[in-house]
Amino acid sequence: MAVELKPGARFRSAVCATEIVVIKAPTGAVDLRCGGRPVVPIGDASPAGLEAEPGFDGGTLIGKRYTDGTDAFEVLCSKGGTASLSVGAELLELKEAKPLPSSD
Amino acid sequence: MHVGMLLQMAADGMGERTAIGSRATGMTMAEMAVRARRAGTVLAGLSGERVALVDLNSGVVPVALFGAALAGKPFVPLNYRLSDEMLCELLRRTAPATVIVGGGMAGRVGSIPGIELIGREEFFERTADPAVEEADPYGGDPDSVALLLYTSGTTGSPKAAVLRHRNLTSYVISTVEFAGAGVEEAAIVSVPPYHIAGISSVLSSTYSGRRVCHLETFEPRLWVDQVRAEAVTHAMVVPTMLNRILDVVSEDGCGLPSLRSLSYGGGPMPLAVIERAMTLLPGVGFVNAYGLTETASTVALLGPDDHREAHASEDPAVRARLTSVGRPLPTVEVVVRSEGGSPLAAGERGEIWVRGEQVAGEYEEHGGAPGDGWFNTRDEGHLDEDGYLYVHGRLDDVIVRGGENLSPGEIEAVLLEHPSVLAAAVVGIPDPDWGEKVVAAVVPAEGAVIDEDALRSFVRGALRSTMTPERIEVRDALPFNEVGKLLRRVLREELADRFG
């Protein structure tokens, strides 16, 4: 189930503790999933009893950013969990950012 | 995203780390988050649409900043060094608002319509009360206003720069690694809370998990003592502070063994001062950060490796980089344009324009941000062949004294109020300690005799000591061009020859 995303929108996983916030959103709907299951907007009830599908159980880490490999789509993990983020069946990539020297 | 999320993530991911104060007795990230949530409820219940602060630095500042965010009210830290008159003027513009005031500040403010005061201690005590409900930690709309900061502009009257939650959080998540600080790291904050660097240090330290020690107000001996006592690893100073810190360190010879990173910004750094610092503090990595209030802090920086390379180089072009502000952040675009707006080639001087998610470029008085996202900093500068940015000064003639922007027009207006003055002009001339110092030229009214000391006292009484001209030249005329515009550059050169 694809959803329209906008920066600042928050979602959580239907299968684990993962929570995310959208940093960059592409135009058009995105089939954003965690553990292979569609993510749920924060505040909405989530379906009970779901588990991560095989291959989507690598986990997420708090404070890490994930992308689909393009510059147009990026989410930040605000709570870590045991399942993995994907768009459809394509796993999101961990965004490796070169640390900058502290300036403040 | 919303500023509240930065704190909640810190509380979730590293709640046991000390956020503020000494390691033994300080407040943890989790405790700070609880305080901020209660502050959100307290501030939402107080009158007004904004939360202002008139106070020195302390651990109350982060709680007030995050609390205002969770209350959905813009935070407006005001310059407590302003004259009473100017402070009240800004409060009238900030109304309706609740103002958190430190000791001795309430009497200066008096009674202003739409302004309710709450003492700092009372505010902080209320956030310790478990009976106070905790506000939603994630906050509301990322597009809402997080911060209003009054900046000195070209005209005498300060402008209110508007920073939205998305500007501040973009800056933090693109420049700071979450929980990236070692547990042993500590930062000292000595820039005042009404300065963008004072705000960004709260946000960056929280997100990186770095403990913060506050210095109420900057004094070099206290700063050095606290760095040693608290084993401070990171600090940010304006150039004027650095030279005074070096005097203390050089005199007692004890160094700053815990310090790893010292960043500086807020005004031009004299080459002699940074070279002295690198020699006296060889174990420290220096970072020159260039940014503006309107850009939510740093947009370009010269890192420790750049400093060392430039310092050690025989090549004049590489060595000159010590006077640059380094390269733009990966998430910020910088171009130098002519007055007409066309991009200039490397080496050519022009106006510095910036663009990025963190760039707000918005003022309360002038409505929205520029449509195409490009913000004209009004700073003059150039980029070199390797992309290093050099800043030459403010196009607007604002005097930058010790990191503080001073508007010449504001000082001139006061001089002109004095009965003995017919005409007045104020400029900044280079100064090794302050970057620039304030000097004036005045033309006496007919038959009047100018008493320099009396005139300086007059300015100090109406404004403040940092805005008082250090020297005043009495002359028969000011240099104007054919259309009656003051030739500031000519005057600056003449006064620099005389008083420099």
Describe the structure.
The complex is a heterodimer of chains A (104) and B (500). Chain A is mostly beta strands. Chain A has one domain. Chain A has strands at 3-4, 10-12, 19-24, 29-30, 32-34, 37-38, 40-41, 65-67, 74-79, 85-87, 90-91, 93-94. Chain A has a 6-stranded antiparallel sheet, with no helix packed on it. A 4-stranded antiparallel sheet of chain A has the order 6-5-10-11, with no helix packed on it. In chain A, strands 1-4 form a two-stranded antiparallel sheet. The radius of gyration of chain A is 13 Å and the shape is globular. Chain B folds into 2 domains: 3-321, Rossmann fold, CATH 3.40.50; 399-499, ANL, C-terminal domain (GMP Synthetase, Chain A, domain 3), CATH 3.30.300.30. Chain B contains 16 helices and 25 strands. In chain B, the strands form 7 sheets. In chain B, strands 10-9-11-12-13-14-15 form a 7-stranded mixed sheet, with helices on both faces. Chain B has a 4-stranded parallel sheet with strand order 4-3-5-6. Chain B is globular. The termini of chain B are far apart. The mean pLDDT of chain B is 92. The A-B interface holds A 7-8, 10, 21, 23, 42, 62-65, 76, 78-80, 97-104 and B 1-2, 5, 8-9, 12-13, 138, 141-143, 166, 173-180, 187, 197, 200-201, 204, 207-208, 234, 236, 261, 263, 265, 285, 287, 289, 291, 297-298, 301, 303-304, 329-330.
Strand content of chain B: 25-35%
Oligomer category: heterodimer
Helix- and strand-based class of chain A? mainly beta
Q: What is the CATH top level name of the largest domain in chain B?
A: Alpha Beta
Tell me the overall shape of chain A.
globular
Keywords:
heterodimer, A: 104 residues, mainly beta, six-stranded antiparallel beta sheet, four-stranded antiparallel beta sheet, 12 strands, B: 500 residues, alpha/beta, Rossmann fold, GMP Synthetase, Chain A, domain 3, 2 domains, four-stranded parallel beta sheet, 16 helices, globular
